[in-house]
Amino acid sequence: METIKEEKGRFDEWKLSARVFFANRTAVAGLVIFLLFVGDAIIVEVAPGLVGVQYPESVVPPLFSLTHPECVNQAPEPPSLAHPFGTTQYGVPGEGCLDVLQLVMKAIRIDLAISLFIVLVGAAIGTVIGVVSAYIGGLLDEGMMRVTDVFFSVPFLILALALGFVLGRTVLNMAYALIIIWWPLYARYGRSLTLSTKEATYVEAAKAAGSGRLKIMFKHIFPNVVPPVLVQISLDVGTVVGIFATLAFIGFLPSNALVPELGALANIGLNLAPLGYWWTVIVPGGAITMFSLAVNLMGDGLRDVIDPRRRS
Amino acid sequence: MADALVIRDLHVQFHTRRGVYKALNGVNLRLRRGEVLGIAGESGCGKTTMGLAVMALLPRNASFPQGQIIFDNKDLMNLPREYWERVGGRFNPKQNERILRRVSKAMGRIRGVRISMVFQEPMTSLNPVLSVGFQIAEAIYVHDPALLARRVLARTRATPSQMPELLAILGATRDDEAAVKEFAAKHDLLGIEDQVLSIWRRDDVHISRKEKAIRSLAGQQIRSLERNIIETVTRTGSIPPKFSRVPVLSRVVRRVFLKEGYRKARELLTSLGIPHAERVLKMYPHELSGGMRQRVVIAIALVNNPEVIIMDEPTSAVDVTVQAQILELVKRIRTSVSAAFIVISHDLAVLAEVSDRIAIMYAGRIVEVAPTDKILRNPLHPYTQLLISAIPTLEGKPVEGIKGEVPDMRALPAGCAFHPRCPFAFEKCHEIIPIDLTHDRDQLVACWLYEAK
Amino acid sequence: MKLWVYVLRRLILLVPTLIGLTLLVFALEHAGGPSVFLALYINPHLTGSARQQLVDRLTARFHLNDPIYVQYFYWLGAILQGDWGTSAQNGQAVTTNFVWFMPNTIMLTVVASLLTWVISIPIGVYSATRRDSVLDQGVRVATFTLYSMPIFLIGFALFLTFGTSWHLLPAQGNIDDNLLPTLSSKSWFDSNAVSYPTHIYLIDALLHGDVPIAWNAFLHVILPAVSLTLALLAGIIRILRVSMLEVLDQDYIRLARAKGVPERTVNNFHAKKNALLPTVTTFGYLVSGLFGGAVVIEEIFGFKGIGWWTTEAFLNSDIAVVMGSTLVFGIVLVLTTLVLDILYGFLDPRIRYE
Questions:
Q1: Averaged pLDDT score across all residues of chain B
Q2: CA-CA distance, C250 to C271, in Å (whole number)?
Q3: What percent of chain C has pLDDT over 70?
């Protein structure tokens, strides 16, 4: 039961935090870009026609070569007023006049959704495992450490390839593969947070007062673990988009999968760009970079807020 | 001048996101040669800031709108003050940083050799990745490599036959320092004095061992390259660029001098009461206890025989037993060293033990200065009186705290900064800042109560 | 003294990790059932009775009808004997393929790492000591951008600008294609386009005194190496700068200044030595990404290292190579991390002495 004064004090803390965050111009820029991406994802999901996107699920609309015969084998066009990011050509025989801007808009939705899925599920599984393992301690904890060690022992891209091979090359499986790769990170992170909280005196005090073990865990440890983990999640979304796209770029998805995904789009351009059609790869890559940039800028801004040393 | 250091009307401000903190607001202080001046006050009153200001070690958000720090007839605050006047009081972090860097450079010949400082936290004052011996040796190497060179040279020149004569002189004389100096001058062995005296003055070994050690000083062999280096440096007084720039040669040079620096460090540590100094030198800071670390830091401050030594809370970060040791050490040092000391502490009891005079600071100003026994017996300023009555004593007198809080340094009260908490405040105190008034010849107090009517 | 204990502990911890790694690969190989596992050892062109005979032999050898834990030991035995399966792409043993391609990747990653350290240290230190200067801000922007770019974009951008548009540097393969005929006539070159003794064109050419070939090979290394370096740089400079800033705030730096040590020495010696420690740790975390990056870069530039080979295997469903890659990269990464940990223990006196 907080007194009115305490509650107001907390509100002032938020106001101060907000002020510090918004004083950082680059962090605000990052936030704006991030919101643009999120906005795009939402609009394409809900009302794609609003931005002129048709067939959001596929790179090439169905029966495209029949409905647009003039586009068959049409070479990609450079950026222009009609196509701000140019056009690209898909497959053999090539189906051209695919507006890159539209493709990117479609792809952002997929990328964001999947990355969020990966990070949230991976973080949830990992954090719970890490916290429980650290709290119980002993052999279980040591065993869990070894397990995470094993997952860390293989470079993540290679492990993703191996997992993809075993699971099958679909978008969803790519997500599952990355979840498997991602949870050990959060297990370690949650574990270290739990260990440092465990040492804290008030847990001792609660134990002395006789609270049940489960109760201690939820009341005292989780509130200390959840906020930093949330911050880490928000930072990781940017990283995962990059990794996810890189996997797709290598060719994780089979060449006939028409999934609009930023990495897959870059992969499409892989053979076109050396011929001079640079935008087919650079634009999707740039979109990933912008998103990562935005998330990282926001993350830096958040760190400024959390770090108590906010001097001149 | 009879004064080692004079601070006049010093103002220092810190510019932060939360406002401008006026840390020092017109500090006036005179440090006499050879004296121990204690600075007392609550935390936040600016004592540490003052010490750092003298050393020009303030962070980049500090500005110096007014005041002088006069050392050796020169104002150390020249550059920043001029800059502040030019800029007209507007704070620019980058320019300020540049000015501070220039001041730092100018202070390079003063810091560590003429004025040195011992910081508050011995646990974090030493570089964790460098050995303790290196950190002491470096202090000499950076300032006076010629001293090290002379020492080596003297040892190579001294012949075993000269040593018994020296020992005989030492045994017979009362003033060992003068005797050794005379001996060294006579036999062209300048550089041997320190080494001989540091052995001779040890009180933890038997005289036979001392004689043996002194005898072994003579007749050291060195390789011709090293001899070359040493002689050049002795002649020119410092390390010539041709040695320090050439890659491989500079390493050899460094090694030679650091080795000798380690030797001197060993002598110094031993004289500070650290047993097995050779072993300690090779250790890293984390291997030493807090008390040992504090001694090392003190050794670093002493090694170049500075004229002024500033000690910031030397006893606050250590436990009570070590506190006593450190105080003993300070008292011992001051008899053997000719420097003036400034000892900063919030603990009046500590200052009472070591200081000749004590100055009381409040809200960035000195409010009272007087010889120790006078200020303890007859404190004039109301703040001093309250401070003294707040010291717990063995008699079990009830301890009274001081009402109120330290003022917000961003917005100081008008007039005397203490007036909101002062039981004797009257109208003048609210309006005009008190000036330093002399009372009873050597007691200075900044309080309107003592204005001669 | 404590350093030996530290090294020993790390070595002991190595064992369960390696065992776990083999378990992981074993699980992956058997995840699709025995028929998928068999594909590791059977040439897909083999059909009919010869194939059936091979299947029977393999079933017996790996005890595929026995419980899974028994299978593991026989599988492990085969692994330790060097029999990791046969590549479906060129019919060679997986281990042979790795021996051919691994040196190139090692050269690439080592060169990139060295370049990264040589460049990052001066820049990181200077950026921190001249905080908020023009150079510092430039460095921050550049590293931030590089850090946000996916590795393939960095590689591809270099590929396009220097390789295709400006034709300044070769951007495909390890050697110019038109040189291959001359190479096959050399004594140190065999029919599989593999050079001897180190399997790295650049080094072997130098060893045999063939400077023009060596130069050409060298040119082909530049773009991939620079791409990897740029990606690594971003992470290392960032952490070095941050840790320098933290170090510069410390008491012992203030003491060094109070001693009268010149500013340049304070920054480049006292501060840098401390700031490098967390940087080495961070580099350890980045090595996993480095290997992954090598895979992508090799694929983009057609640089025939083990990363390129693995990608090709993945795209061509060559299970033996993919699984073998997982195992070999795992071993290499574990060993690299061990070496880095030992190095760190050596550098930090708090670990080295008590």
A1: 85
A2: 9
A3: 99
Return the ∠ at Cα C318 (arms to C312 and C322), rounded to 5°.
Answer: 75
pLDDT category at C354 given cuts 50, 70, 90 is low
Q: Which partners does chain B have (≥3 C-beta pairs < 8 Å)?
A: A, C
pLDDT at A312 (0 to 100):
40
| Cβ atoms of C169 and C219 closer than 8 Å | yes
Distance (Å, rounded) from C-alpha B334 to C-alpha B341? 8
To the nearest whole Å, the CA of A308 is away from the closest chain B CA by 12
How far is Cα B185 from Cα B379, in angstroms, rounded to an integer?
51
Confidence of residue C318 (pLDDT cuts 50, 70, 90): confident
Q: Which two tokens stand for residue A102?
A: 């539209």
Stated pTM of the model: 0.87
How many angstroms separate the CA of residue A13 from the nearest CA in chain B? 14
Which helix (H) or strand (E) covers residue A131, if one does?
helix A100-136
Averaged pLDDT, B318-345: 86
> Which three-class secondary structure state does DSSP give residue A98?
strand
Query: What confidence category does residue B401 fall into, taking pLDDT thresholds of 50, 70 and 90?
Result: low
- Within an 8 Å CB–CB cutoff, is residue B15 touching chain A? yes
Smallest Cβ–Cβ distance between C17 and the set A146, A163, A286 belongs to: A146
Instruction: Report the neighbours of A using a cutoff of 3 or more CB pairs below 8 angstroms.
Output: B, C
Under the banding of pLDDT at 50, 70 and 90, the label for residue A304 is: confident
Radius of gyration of chain C (CA): 24
Which residue type occupies C241?
Answer: R
Q: Point out the residue among A152, A158, A282 whose CB comes nearest to the CB of C291.
A: A158
- DSSP conformation letters of B253-268: HHHHHHHHHHHHHHHH
Neighbour-count burial of A68, counting CB atoms closer than 10 A to its CB (0-12 exposed, 13-18 middle, 19+ buried): middle
Inter-chain touch A158–C32, beta carbons under 8 Å: no
With 70 as the cut, is the pLDDT of residue A309 above it? no
Which of B226-235 are b and which e, b meaning 16 or more Cβ less than 10 Å from the residue's Cβ?
beebbebbbe
Considering all CA atoms of chain A, what is the largest pairwise distance in Å, rounded to the nearest integer?
79
Residue C197: asked if its preceding bond is cis (omega within 30°), the reply is yes
DSSP letter for each residue of C124-193: HHHHHHTTTSHHHHHHHHHHHHHHHS-HHHHHHHHIIIIIIIS--S--SSSS-GGGHHHHHTSTTB-TTS
Distance CA B437, CA B272 (A): 40
Beta bridge partners of A116: none
Pairwise CA distance, residues C135 & C126, whole Å? 9
Q: What is the pLDDT of residue C291?
A: 95
Here the ipTM equals 0.89
A:C CB pairs within 8 Å: 154
Neighboring chain C residues of A149 at a CB cutoff of 8 Å:
13, 16-17, 20
CB pairs under 8 A between B and C: 84
Nearest-Cα distance to chain B for A312, in Å, is 4
Tell me whether residues C259 and B105 touch, CB distance under 8 A: no
The residue in chain A having the minimum alpha-carbon distance to the alpha carbon of residue C249 is: A309
- What pLDDT score does B190 carry? 81
Predicted confidence (pLDDT) per residue in C163-209, tens digit: 777 777 777 777 777 777 777 777 777 777 777 788 888 888 788 78
Distance from CA of A210 to the nearest CA of C (A): 37
Dihedral angle computed from the Cα positions of residues B28, B30, B31 and B36, in that order, rounded to the nearest 10 degrees:
-70
The one-character DSSP state at C189 is B
Sort out which chain B residues have CB atoms less than 8 A from A311's CB and list them.
16-17, 61
To the nearest whole angstrom, how far is the Cα of B183 from the nearest Cα of chain A? 59
Q: What single-letter DSSP state applies at residue C93?
A: B
